């Protein structure tokens, strides 16, 4: 039996023949100046089929030289020099020197016979892990594709092969197939070329970028509708609703064991599933159902007879239909009878919760990878964009977003690990992690923790709130004291506003082959601080995020974050406070109240956002838009908009709003104009242009009528334009002696800060006197240290002095 046509990708694993250096038992393919494929087979049989990791080897021929003598082969490019004695690959027979000087002793890579290579990868920047299930805090990560020594590798020798019919098979035993990467610290290029080799990240549908509501809970149709209506009344937007376990029958007859796996709707809870899902769609929600496919299909299931007949299972004996993802017949029936009928009545995509390990009936075949691969292709059969929620299945899994990181333990320790974990996954191209925001299980209820976790979720790839069935684990805002509940609502509203920006990052990732979440060392590879402060990361090109993962200090009413401020100016998205990184960057301690998460806009950064109606769940291209502009340099941004679904964007059906900032110290000009298929945009649009971190009293001019005001709290000059045709150009100019906000009078800021602290009034008076009498920041710092008020208080005061 052959697979259905929609499972057959148009793949060609053959390389450029001009890039090959081959002998009887070896073959080298120079893919780029930094990347080479190395094959050894004693029978001289080499593999040209695509594999689980590698789909494309047809790169343009790079410049390289070959020295071939008896018993010795050398290949040299601008980035590496390979030496091989034409024998079996061993550490003594094959080595590569990287042409960059990042270590005194680690620049030579020797072929190794172990998984970790030889020498050990002590400089590796790591990748990701299959799951965070039940892990409270850090866990060991797999090796990644980036290395501070300038070189790394991966082993493709055991990957399954993908044939022209879309099916997979084990490859010849004993064959060696390695890829060496010697990119120095050009991390962006390393990941770009890996995406080209392994296949790009798919373009996700727009709806997955909003907020997700998820909970492992016995919802009924009525209770779920009431829950969502309450969210709507509060103005809280969600774009995806998740139905965990209890959408299907879980209390099964004893003879069938457990009800972990199921495909039959629980009609006691959901009498008419199609009616329920139609109601959801009508209100702007998309739907995913959780499945645990490992136990196959039991006789009590609605689809049992059709599945059993198709697969010739004895129905009279009530034999179960065993899960067997290694069988084409099973795979076809699995989609035809278990998934397509549910998709027809409203399911948009699936949450594949596979927890049964990597073993299967075929050696080397991981059922998780098979499920991810074929589920994604199946959802694309009618022109939809494929999306799943599933676990990480190894290198190459960036092609199967979205990642479900597992059942997070509800503790501060779990939260502290997740920013690093999320950003580091980009080192294997895996940029779409979805966590159990707020924590799934165990731990404790901490009002501040859930707020900080949700704020991190806002600046995460996917913001999916989740918790288990414990009645005390819900994340509904009304279950928290008003101050914290209000902060949760504000965070969820902000995420909804950020979707246009994040959707553009989604498009860039797919087309330009750049991750969405970016470790700071990608932009500043020579700054050693970026390898120390690993919890800060770039949320796309415009924002650097430094999540708060510590409790608030009682004395100051603020939590602290240790960060590295890169060179240049960096402006806080929420306060407009401008940080000066100087020429080389500097270390700093940021202090934030419960309502603030450090998100710093780069100099010249441009951040577009949408303004949706209160409680509006849909994510259509909005008629009301905002754009936040950060001072300090030239900048540009191209906002991408299309239908949010389907494949027509590949045929040019999209619009791009080009934004540009021309900067000088006393003059800035911002322009904005939409181009392309304007029929995809609202006929009229209203823009609010916000110059964040700019000085008060600036002169503003524009090519159109506008209203202006200055918001002192956020240090923002705001220009509001009326509704206008979507293609209308906006040109706004501002002038002044100094455009950048000077962060205010130190004495005034010190008074306000001390006034908010819960410390002794005499101590406040003494500390304030330091600001009144100090001649400069250094003398003020010296005086404060002499008083010795405690580290938390010093951190808060010093931030306003040194940044």
Question: How is the secondary structure organized here?
Answer:
Elements: E1 12-15, E2 20-22, E3 26-32, E4 35-40, E5 56-57, E6 65-69, E7 72-76, E8 80-84, E9 94-98, E10 108-110, E11 152-155, E12 161-162, E13 168-169, E14 176-181, H1 187-198, E15 211-213, H2 221-233, E16 240-243, H3 273-282, E17 286-291, H4 304-310, H5 328-344, E18 349-352, H6 367-379, E19 388-390, E20 403-404, H7 412-424, E21 433-434, H8 447-458, E22 463-465, H9 482-512, E23 517-519, H10 520-523, E24 537-539, E25 543-545, E26 559-565, E27 569-572, E28 578-580, E29 586-592, E30 599-602, E31 606-610, E32 624-629, E33 635-641, E34 655-663, E35 667-676, E36 684-692, E37 699-702, E38 707-711, E39 716-720, E40 724-725, E41 730-735, H11 746-756, H12 761-773, H13 777-787, H14 791-802
Parallel strand pairs: 1-5, 15-16, 15-22, 16-17, 17-18, 18-19, 20-21, 32-36
Antiparallel strand pairs: 2-3, 3-4, 4-14, 6-7, 7-8, 8-9, 9-10, 11-14, 12-13, 23-24, 24-25, 25-30, 26-29, 27-28, 27-30, 31-32, 33-34, 34-35, 35-41, 36-39, 36-40, 37-41, 38-39
Helix pairs in contact: 8-9, 11-12, 11-14, 12-13, 13-14
């Amino acid at each position: 039996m052959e697979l259905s046509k929609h499972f057959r990708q148009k793949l060609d694993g053959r390389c450029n023949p001009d890039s090959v250096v081959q002998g009887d038992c070896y073959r080298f393919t120079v893919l780029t100046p930094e990347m080479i494929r190395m094959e050894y087979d004693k029978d001289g049989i080499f593999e040209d089929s695509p594999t689980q990791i590698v789909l494309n080897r047809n790169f343009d021929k790079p410049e390289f030289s070959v020295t071939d003598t008896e018993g010795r082969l050398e290949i040299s490019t601008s980035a590496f020099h390979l030496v091989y004695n034409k024998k079996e690959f061993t550490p003594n027979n094959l080595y590569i020197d990287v042409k960059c000087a990042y270590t005194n002793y680690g620049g030579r890579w020797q072929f190794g016979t172990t998984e970790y290579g030889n020498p050990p990868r002590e400089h590796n920047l790591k990748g990701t892990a299959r799951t965070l299930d039940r892990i409270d805090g850090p866990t060991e990560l797999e090796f990644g594709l980036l290395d501070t020594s300038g070189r790394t590798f991966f082993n493709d020798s055991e990957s399954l092969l993908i044939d022209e019919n879309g099916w997979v098979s084990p490859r010849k035993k004993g064959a060696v197939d390695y890829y060496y990467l010697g990119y120095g610290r050009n991390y962006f290029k390393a990941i770009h070329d890996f995406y080209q080799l392994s296949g790009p990240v798919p373009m996700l549908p727009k709806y997955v970028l909003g907020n997700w509501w998820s909970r492992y809970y016995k919802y009924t149709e009525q209770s779920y509708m009431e829950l969502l209506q309450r969210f709507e009344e509060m103005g809280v937007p969600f774009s995806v609703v998740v139905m965990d376990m209890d959408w299907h029958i879980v209390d099964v007859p004893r003879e069938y064991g457990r009800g972990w796996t199921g495909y039959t709707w629980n009609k006691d809870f959901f009498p008419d599933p199609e009616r329920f899902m139609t109601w959801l769609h009508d209100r702007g929600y998309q739907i995913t159902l959780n499945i645990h496919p490992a136990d196959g299909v039991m006789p009590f299931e609605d689809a049992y007879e059709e599945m059993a007949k198709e697969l010739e299972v004895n129905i009279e004996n009530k034999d179960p239909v065993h899960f067997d993802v290694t069988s084409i017949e099973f795979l076809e029936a699995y989609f035809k009878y278990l998934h397509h009928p549910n998709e027809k009545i409203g399911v948009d995509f699936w949450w594949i919760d596979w927890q049964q390990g990597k073993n299967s009936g075929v050696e080397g075949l991981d059922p998780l990878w098979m499920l991810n691969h074929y589920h994604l292709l199946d959802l694309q059969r009618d022109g939809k964009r494929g999306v799943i929620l599933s676990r990480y299945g190894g290198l190459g899994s960036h092609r199967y977003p979205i990642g479900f990181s597992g059942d997070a333990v509800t503790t501060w320790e779990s939260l502290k690990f997740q920013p690093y974990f999320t950003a580091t996954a980009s080192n294997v191209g895996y940029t779409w992690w979805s966590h159990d925001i707020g924590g799934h299980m165990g731990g404790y209820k901490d009002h501040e923790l859930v707020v900080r976790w949700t704020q991190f979720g806002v600046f995460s790839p996917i913001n999916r709130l989740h918790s288990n069935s414990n009645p005390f684990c819900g994340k509904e805002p009304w279950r928290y004291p008003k101050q914290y509940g209000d902060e949760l609502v504000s965070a969820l509203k902000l995420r909804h506003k950020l979707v246009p920006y994040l959707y553009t990052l989604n498009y860039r990732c797919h087309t330009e082959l750049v991750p969405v979440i970016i470790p700071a060392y990608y932009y500043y590879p020579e700054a050693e601080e970026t390898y120390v402060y690993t919890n800060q990361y770039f949320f796309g090109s415009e924002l650097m995020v430094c999540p708060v993962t510590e409790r608030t200090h009682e004395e100051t009413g603020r939590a602290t974050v240790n960060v590295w401020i890169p060179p240049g100016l960096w402006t806080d998205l929420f306060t407009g406070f401008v940080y000066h990184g100087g020429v080389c960057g500097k270390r700093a301690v940021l202090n934030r109240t419960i309502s603030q998460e450090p998100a710093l806009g780069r100099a010249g950064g441009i951040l577009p956002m949408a303004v949706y109606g209160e409680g509006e769940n849909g994510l259509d291209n909005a008629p009301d838009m905002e754009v936040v502009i950060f001072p300090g340099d030239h900048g540009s941004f191209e906002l991408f908009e299309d239908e949010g679904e389907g494949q027509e964007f590949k045929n040019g059906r999209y619009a791009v709003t080009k934004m540009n900032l021309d900067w000088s110290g006393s003059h800035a000009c911002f322009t904005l104009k939409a181009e392309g298929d304007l029929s995809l945009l609202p006929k009229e649009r209203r823009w609010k242009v916000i110059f964040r971190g700019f000085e008060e009293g600036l002169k503003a001019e524009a090519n159109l009528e506008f209203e202006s005001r200055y918001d002192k709290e956020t240090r923002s000059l705001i220009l509001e334009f009326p509704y206008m045709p979507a293609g209308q150009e906006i040109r706004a100019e501002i002038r002044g002696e100094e455009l950048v906000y000077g962060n205010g009078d130190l004495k005034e800021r010190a008074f306000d800060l001390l006034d908010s602290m819960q410390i002794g009034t005499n101590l406040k008076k003494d500390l304030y006197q330091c600001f009144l009498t100090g001649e400069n920041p250094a003398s003020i710092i010296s005086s404060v240290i002499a008083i010795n008020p405690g580290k938390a208080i010093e951190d808060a005061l010093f931030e306003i002095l040194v940044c």
